[in-house]
Specification:
The complex is a heterodimer of chains A (147) and B (368). Chain A is α/β, with parallel strands linked by helices and 147 residues long. In chain A, 22% of the residues lie in helices and 27% in strands. In chain A, the strands form 2 sheets. In chain A, strands 1-2-5-4-3 form a 5-stranded mixed β-sheet. A two-stranded parallel sheet of chain A has the order 6-7. In chain A, a hairpin with a 4-residue loop joins strand 1 and strand 2. In chain A, 52% of the residues are buried. Chain B has 368 residues and is mainly alpha-helical. Chain B has a single domain, classed as Cytochrome-c3 Hydrogenase, chain B, CATH 1.10.645.10. Chain B has a 3-stranded antiparallel β-sheet with strand order 1-2-3. In chain B, a hairpin with a 4-residue loop joins strand 6 and strand 7. The longest helix of chain B is centred in the N-terminal third of the chain and has 29 residues. Classes of the chains: A alpha/beta (147), B mainly alpha (368). The interface between A and B is medium-sized, with 31 and 35 residues.
Amino acid sequence: MTLPAVSGETLARRLREAAPNSVVEWSEAAVWVEPGSLDSVASVLHDDAEIDFKFLNSISAIDFVEHFELVYHLTSISRRHTGVVRSRVYGREEPTAASVVGVWKGADFQEREIWDLMGVRFIGHPNMKRIMLWEGFDGHPLRKDFL
Amino acid sequence: MTIRTEPMTVNVGPQHPSTHGVFRVRITFDGEDIVEVEPVLGYLHRGSEKLAEERNYVQVVTLTDRLDYTSSMINNQAYCLAVEQLLGIEPPPRGKYLRTLAAELQRIASHLIAVGFFVQELGAFGTPLMYTFRSRERILDLFEMLCGARVTVSYMRPGGVFADTPADFWPALEQFLEDFEGELEEIENLLLSNEILMVRTRGVSPLPADVAINCSVSGPVLRASGVNWDWRKMAPYDAYDQVEFDIPVGQNGDNYDRFWVRMQEVRQSLRIVRQCVAQIEPGPVRQELPLVLRAAPGAEAYGRVEASKGELGFFLVSDGGVSPYRCKIRSPSLINLTITEHLLLGWKLADMIVSLGSVDINMGEVDR
């Protein structure tokens, strides 16, 4: 048994009204958005009365080699439903995405961890430093080409 | 005449005895008041997520023991649920009940540690901690009967648990439940309305519900702030839909409420254990599966449980191989630390360690 999930299509429809040019595509399970518009996507989904994603469960980063994928698991505590927002980030030198810390403070350590271990920088994060490893560490260990 | 003062920065940890492992926090004090807080993490970072990519699905269970090593059973459970979701398998009923039972015993053990150390950090040196450890010890003995290990249990497997219970487990459990009733009452009488404890913790470091939600806080800390949210109720897994229990919710989100919620949860866990004992029936404990599991390429699963510290999630991505392509661990201890600054700023040196203790973190899980 799980909580009902808001479909990617519903999220995409709402986002296309409120945050134009942010949606890339959608499936039943998730909506994919532009990494540069994650902050505006976050504030739309957070403030929307129907969707009401006040709780950010987790941010995961996956290295698919040709791109990185960020996965945001979200929950609405008052409406009791969940949803998934995803974003593909291209480039391996210094890929960037917009930080959502301004909307969900709970993203703070998670975005730092993704920068530290996966090497995706978050623009707009107030303290974009490594968190598990030390400054000056060479490389990002969770990348598939590390070691 | 005015005395010249200046703020002083102190490193608390990573070897501080009250930081629950190797947690380090840089605190700037103005006299006794805390004016700046910066948590410094990573001293126990072992790269568990990377290690999981090199092991097959069953072997990863052993890594999960070493996350929050005070609640290894629940870590096993979260991971196994994620793998089961990935492969579309379901454990037999007896397996589900045994997992629920073990997880609730583990929750009791973990909360006993949290409460014992919390009171120790208030200055009640030794005695309350020994009260709680006395009972925890019995639970670890039960785990030893279940799987041969006390801390790094690796008891659960995708598809159920690794073996059925030995015959002497059930009488030992009955005896524990009987004895623990009295032991818990003793602990409650000693602590719940203890005047010193109340004066020191009530109203200290309150966490409003909206801040808790915005900071992604989960578990007893979230519920102490008055948010009725427990994944065991919201999305029941294993046998949680078969048992009755209440969710204790605090009011002010202060240090006392966080302590109080854990004490009440111990009672509820005890209720669940009793119901498991009454309802469990003979049968297989594990679904037969190949030794080396493979999921479909591109398959993904996010398995989560209400662990003793909060929402513990495993996000697994498969590329069709024998190991997870990616195994992201959503660690409640790490994310609960987001509120460190909110809890400490403006409070005094003497409350600092108590407030940190009230969050109940485990560094194995924070750093992974």
